[in-house]
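RECORD TYPE: inverse folding
INPUT: structure tokens
STRUCTURE:
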């Protein structure tokens, strides 16, 4: 080990080896600072939902799993709550927001999918049991659509008209 004195720092004599170590540590510290500053100023590319962007458009209904299995959810809430409104599921895409709203009354219930796009909302009644209307829905995820069977009743409770309606969510 070379013990010759080559530099004086803060009133202390340093050997050549100690001096080299000090220089190396300062250079490493400077490199760390530069890399930290560069990483802070580098713009990151943010991908909100890589599955949607890479795989094309995915059916939004497949993201609303509780809504697809709504019958069990309704039964669960009906046994606990009366006369209340519950948002039990929501999903946000790049351009739209989807919410599933359950409106429970004493002897009725209404289940809605509310779509909010560009501050404009639209609602689809997917399940209903009331004195004037009955709706039941099936989900076709391959076609991204809801097939709704419905029946309207008159004031005496007799069927007035009904049918099937298909709502596309593509």
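DESIGNED SEQUENCE:
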């Amino acid at each position: 080990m070379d013990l010759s004195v080559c530099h004086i720092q803060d009133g202390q004599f340093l050997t050549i080896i100690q001096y080299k170590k000090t220089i190396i540590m300062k250079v490493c510290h400077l490199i760390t600072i530069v890399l930290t500053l560069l990483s802070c100023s580098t713009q990151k590319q943010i991908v909100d939902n890589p599955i949607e962007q890479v795989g094309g458009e995915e059916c939004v209904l497949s993201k609303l799993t509780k809504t697809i299995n709504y019958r069990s959810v309704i039964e669960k809430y009906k046994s606990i709550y009366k006369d209340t409104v519950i948002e039990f599921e929501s999903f946000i895409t790049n351009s739209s927001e989807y919410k599933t709203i359950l409106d429970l009354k004493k002897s009725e219930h209404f289940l809605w999918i509310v779509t909010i796009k560009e501050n404009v909302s639209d609602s689809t009644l997917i399940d209903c049991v009331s004195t004037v209307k009955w709706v039941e829905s099936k989900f076709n995820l391959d076609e991204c659509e809801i097939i709704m069977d419905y029946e309207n009743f008159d004031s005496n409770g007799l069927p007035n008209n009904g049918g099937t309606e298909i709502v596309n969510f593509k």
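NOTES: The chain has a mean pLDDT of 80.
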